Amino acid sequence: MTGERKAPRIAVLLSGNGTSLENLLEHIESGDVPGEVGVVISSRADAYGLERARRRGIPAEVVARRDYPDLDAFNDALHAALEPHAVDLVALLGFLSLFQLRGRYEGRALNVHPALIPAFSGTGFYGSRVHEAVLAAGVKLSGATVHFIDEEYDHGPILLQEAVPVEADDTPDTLAARVVAAERRLVPQAIRLIAEGRVEIKDGRTRILPPTSP
Question: Is-catalytic flag, 79?
Answer without folding.
Answer: no
